[in-house]
């Protein structure tokens, strides 16, 4: 806790809750974690490590720095990410940082110096406490600043501390060209920006010269091309940008359809053989791929949707209604577009501006790319996030509490540091610098909410879980504003406060009233609500006396890279990904572990030691809790995750956003994931309920809706599935060398076979697959094109080569893993209901053979499922049928292919020799699939595919973090800082 001391000008009789008055201005700091006379660095054990990071796709080394220094309790992953991302200086030079101490000191000492220079501390001793407490909190992963702080503070380069920017554009060519330049400079610096294009006149209006205007959609093309060229910070990932258009803009329908039409183009080009994956060589040929699009709707429009009435589109220059549209039809068009390609998202204008503290200085019209920062145009916000698990008190016997007092003290410490940063920060444009210095927008938030809820025995989608989340959020934002009022008494309120005093205080009352009305549920959230209630009363009292130092205090950001830095299990407001995690080990190697939150949850729920151990062991083997020994079915929901057979429903995510939004100054970065089977009506309901529940912004992503978003790392998986298992280190042994010579296993003269007619991309063909009577596939014959043609000859030769391997023991799954996903023409649509698309004839052939001849477990591991299995997965969460569902005769009768016993009338050419299968007759085991992070591990264990791109830096599957994707292997993100 800190004390506020205020000078006579503020009145010596006023006292804050956290301290008394004094004749000297400045904050009296109190210790939270540290001990007088002992530096935080001296209380931990330090160790030296080597950081070597590789690309899993080709084994190349991406980054290497040896002998770096970290505390022994920091995970390998956290140390790797901090070393590669945040240490400054050229690797291999004396200027290169090599210790976490150097990194923290570089940042913390800069903050202290600026605080002393600008009068934040009552004495040098208070500055000492500030420095030590900030160092301790960063060292022990209690919180983290956003990435730009670690990149820039204390270096010779511009000290940019903000990750979130909002720009503005007016209806003039000069302003539009300034937009391109300003956005480009922000991208160059590694950050992202958003803006609203609604001031630009529509294509249905006239220019002053009498010609037709181009409209905002046309200018989006130029900005998109610029972003695609610059990318973000010179990296290989796309730039982060948000484009917003008001729902009453006459070009709104064109805006809604921009990405839908481009998605159709992507599909056509992909079917023609072009590489249209995210980051593919040909994806740059399509437009509008570098931005998130959102429609800004108002209450009038949403009520017109609800009532089924018309809604007017207004001219930008005159404000007159130039067209009336069916509101429900337009809303449906938005939902259809989002269903098809995940854009546009939706922002609720009246809700946003109802909570706006500075309306006298302008409306909130846009957001940053991830939609958590919403404030004035030409402004920025610097972020910091607290690790909620650090505040859970647990005696190990199931008795838990949230440490309200320590949490409040840390929030005060962090908000103080964040405000100090604005005193020395640099900004990408002068306009952004002026606005930010005048309004001092901050964005404190948190990570690890999903882990905290599970550890406390709360289901993410439950009243108790939402109550605890809401209480913590209310306490956090209330404490931040209380500290902001205390700072105002010391160094003055923000410049724009006098003009906005009444609306700012009105918003504080709204927060306090929402806190009073919130539902209390159990022994964990009730004390937090009580503390929050007292805090909001302090906010109202102190704010009225001193004003506020900051126009905004809190947001919920994705916490991508910094979440990994803090060793958080979950990011932002997200639930846990899965119950089993991938953990890197010191010295190399990895292991999979059941989340530490699971045993804590079991204790909280009343399970004894042996019961908990049995449940944890079951989860380690199965990856889920279904039918875990001794686990009550009513407790299953506590362990629901983002992936798996018991995944959280889309509305569960929406309800959690609604539970915390009333106490967030800004908004929440979160995408509501929906299953592939979701309908347009489901999207409409999500968008409509978001408005009803008071959320500020929403975006949805329906699984597999985008072509340019790889569904899974199947290429990588196939490669890893055929690699040899790694050999563990140990004493060298001499093995007896036995030479095996291949022996051919001939097919009998009469053998069962399947003849399949197929069409791939318009090319017709026939495949006959003959098998041993009791031992699997033995030969394949392919008929394509006219006899004597080059294609027919190559297919004949290919058939013989494949048959050679099959008869000499090469497992079919080896062929399948090697030849699926090969791309060449002809490719495209097929007439096979199980395999609707094929990237080549070879891709189709081996997928069809896998479905016909491989056991379910083998092909499921390769990601190959029939239409019936995919349907079953959407309905039940499992591809595999239960025992009473299997009907072999029925499946055979319903198969769309001709099944026959084929007796060749003429001898077939005998293929030459290869390797003999084991003498036991057992099939050769397939190589184990290899995981490189928790997402890939969850895919393997749960038999699912996470709909996420591959990391450009290290090749592993990324996972969702808010509105972006995060690589937990190297810390890279898909577009957000």
Describe the structure.
- The chain has 977 residues and is α+β, with helices and mostly antiparallel strands.
- The protein folds into 3 domains: 26-158 and 400-438 and 460-554, no CATH class; 168-365 and 677-702, Anaerobic Ribonucleotide-triphosphate Reductase Large Chain (Alpha-Beta Barrel), CATH 3.20.70.20; 752-946, no CATH class.
- The chain is 38% helix and 16% strand.
- It contains 29 helices and 29 strands.
- Helix 5 (173-188) links the parallel strand 6 and strand 7 (192-196).
- Helix 8 crosses helix 9 (327-341).
- It starts with a strand and ends in an 11-residue tail after the last strand.
Strand and helix map with partners:
Elements: E1 2-5, E2 26-29, E3 46-54, E4 61-71, H1 76-85, H2 100-117, H3 124-139, E5 143-145, H4 147-152, E6 164-166, H5 173-188, E7 192-196, H6 216-230, E8 241-246, H7 252-271, E9 292-297, H8 299-307, E10 310-314, E11 321-326, H9 327-341, E12 345-348, H10 349-354, E13 379-387, E14 392-394, E15 400-402, H11 404-424, H12 430-439, E16 442-447, H13 449-455, H14 463-491, H15 497-517, H16 525-546, H17 561-565, E17 580-584, E18 590-594, H18 597-604, H19 609-622, H20 650-660, E19 672-674, H21 680-692, E20 697-698, E21 700-702, H22 714-721, E22 751-760, E23 763-771, E24 777-784, H23 790-807, H24 812-819, E25 828-832, E26 835-838, H25 841-853, H26 856-861, H27 867-876, H28 888-894, E27 898-902, H29 934-942, E28 959-961, E29 964-966
Parallel strand pairs: 6-7, 7-8, 8-9, 9-12, 13-16, 19-21
Antiparallel strand pairs: 1-2, 3-4, 5-13, 6-13, 10-11, 12-20, 14-15, 17-18, 22-23, 22-27, 23-24, 25-26, 28-29
């Amino acid at each position: 806790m800190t004390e506020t001391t205020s000078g006579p000008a503020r009145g010596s009789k006023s006292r804050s809750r956290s301290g008394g008055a004094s004749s000297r201005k400045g904050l009296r700091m109190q210790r939270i974690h540290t001990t007088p006379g002992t530096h935080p660095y001296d209380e931990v054990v330090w160790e030296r490590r080597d950081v070597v990071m590789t690309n899993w796709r080709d084994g190349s080394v991406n980054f290497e720095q040896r002998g770096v220094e970290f505390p022994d309790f920091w995970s390998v992953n956290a140390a790797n990410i901090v070393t590669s991302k945040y240490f400054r200086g050229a690797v291999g030079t004396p200027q290169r940082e090599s210790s976490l101490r150097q990194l923290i000191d570089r940042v913390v000492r800069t903050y202290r110096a600026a605080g002393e220079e600008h009068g934040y501390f009552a004495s040098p001793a208070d500055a000492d406490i500030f420095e030590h407490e900030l160092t301790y909190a960063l060292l022990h992963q209690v919180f983290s600043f956003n990435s730009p702080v670690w990149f820039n503070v204390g270096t010779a380069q511009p000290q940019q501390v903000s990750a979130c920017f909002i720009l503005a554009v007016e209806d003039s060519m000069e302003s539009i060209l300034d937009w391109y330049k300003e956005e480009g400079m922000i991208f160059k610096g590694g950050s992202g920006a958003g803006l609203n294009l609604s001031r630009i006149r529509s294509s249905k209006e006239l220019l002053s010269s009498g010609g037709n205007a181009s409209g905002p959609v046309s200018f989006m093309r130029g900005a998109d091309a610029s972003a695609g060229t610059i990318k973000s910070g010179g990296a290989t990932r796309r730039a982060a940008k948000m484009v917003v258009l008001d729902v009453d803009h006459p070009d709104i329908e064109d805006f809604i359809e921009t990405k839908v039409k481009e998605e159709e183009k992507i599909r056509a080009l992909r079917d023609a053989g072009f590489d249209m994956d995210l980051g593919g060589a040909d994806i740059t040929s399509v437009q509008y791929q570098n931005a998130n699009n959102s429609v800004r709707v108002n209450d009038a429009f949403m009520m017109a949707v609800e009532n089924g009435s018309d809604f007017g589109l207004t001219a930008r220059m005159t404000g007159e209604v130039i067209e009336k549209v069916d509101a429900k039809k337009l809303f449906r068009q938005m939902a259809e577009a989002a269903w098809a390609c995940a854009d546009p998202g939706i922002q609720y204008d009246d809700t946003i501006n109802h909570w706006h503290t500075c309306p006298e200085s302008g409306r909130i019209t846009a957001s940053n790319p991830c939609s958590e920062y919403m404030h004035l145009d030409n402004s920025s916000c610097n972020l910091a996030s607290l690790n909620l698990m650090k505040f859970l008190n647990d005696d190990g016997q199931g008795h838990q509490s949230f440490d309200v007092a320590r949490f409040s003290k840390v929030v005060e410490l962090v908000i103080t540091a964040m405000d100090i940063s604005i005193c020395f920060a640099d900004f990408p444009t002068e306009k952004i610098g002026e606005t930010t210095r005048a309004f001092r927008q901050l964005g404190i938030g948190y990570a690890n909410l999903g882990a905290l809820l599970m550890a406390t025995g709360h289901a993410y989608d439950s009243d108790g879980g939402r109550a605890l989340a809401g209480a913590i959020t209310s306490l956090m934002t209330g404490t931040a504003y209380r500290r902001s009022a205390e700072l105002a008494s010391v160094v003055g309120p923000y410049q724009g406060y006098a003009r906005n005093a009444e609306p700012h205080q009105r918003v504080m009352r709204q927060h306090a009233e929402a806190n009073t009305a919130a539902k209390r549920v159990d022994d964990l959230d009730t004390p937090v609500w009580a503390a929050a209630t007292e805090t909001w009363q302090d906010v109202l009292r102190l704010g009225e006396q001193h004003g506020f130092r900051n126009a905004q205090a809190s947001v919920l950001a994705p916490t991508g890279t910094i979440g990994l830095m803090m060793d958080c299990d979950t990011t932002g407001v997200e639930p846990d990904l899965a119950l089993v995690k991938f953990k890197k080990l010191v010295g190399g190697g990895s292991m999979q572990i059941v989340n530490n939150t699971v045993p804590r949850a079991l204790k909280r729920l009343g399970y004894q030691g042996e019961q908990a151990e049995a449940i944890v062991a079951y989860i380690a083997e199965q990856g889920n809790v279904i039918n875990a020994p001794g686990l009550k079915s009513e407790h299953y929901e506590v362990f629901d995750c983002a992936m798996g057979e018991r995944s959280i429903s889309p509305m569960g995510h929406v309800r959690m956003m609604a539970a915390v939004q009333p106490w967030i100054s800004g908004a929440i970065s979160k995408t509501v994931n929906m299953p592939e089977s979701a309908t347009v009506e489901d999207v409409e309901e999500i968008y409509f309920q978001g408005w009803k529940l008071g959320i500020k912004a929403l975006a949805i992503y329906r699984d597999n809706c985008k072509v340019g978003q790889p569904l899974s790392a199947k290429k990588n998986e196939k490669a890893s599935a055929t690699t040899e298992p790694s050999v563990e280190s140990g004493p060298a042994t001499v093995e007896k060398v036995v030479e095996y010579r291949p022996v051919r296993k001939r097919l009998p003269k009469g053998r069962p076979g399947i003849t399949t007619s197929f069409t791939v991309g318009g090319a017709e063909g026939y495949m006959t697959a003959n098998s041993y009577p009791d031992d699997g596939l033995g030969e394949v014959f392919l008929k394509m094109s006219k006899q004597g043609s080059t294609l027919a000859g190559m297919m004949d030769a290919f058939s013989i080569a494949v048959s050679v391997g099959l008869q000499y023991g090469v497992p079919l799954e080896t062929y399948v893993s090697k030849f699926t996903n090969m791309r060449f023409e002809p490719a495209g649509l097929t007439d096979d209901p199980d395999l609707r698309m094929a990237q080549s004839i070879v891709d189709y052939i081996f997928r069809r053979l896998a479905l016909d001849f491989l056991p379910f477990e083998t092909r499921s591991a390769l990601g190959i499922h029939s239409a019936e299995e995919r349907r079953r997965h959407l309905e039940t969460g499992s591809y595999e049928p239960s025992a009473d569902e299997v009907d072999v005769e029925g499946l055979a009768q319903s198969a769309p292919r001709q099944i026959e016993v084929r007796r060749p009338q003429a001898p077939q050419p005998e293929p030459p020799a290869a390797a003999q299968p084991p003498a036991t007759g057992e099939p050769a085991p397939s190589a184990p699939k290899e995981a490189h992070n928790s997402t890939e591990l969850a895919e393997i264990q749960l038999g699912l595919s996470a709909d996420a791109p591959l990391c450009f830096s290290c090749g592993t599957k990324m996972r969702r973090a808010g509105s972006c994707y995060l690589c937990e292997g190297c810390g890279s993100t898909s577009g957000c800082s």
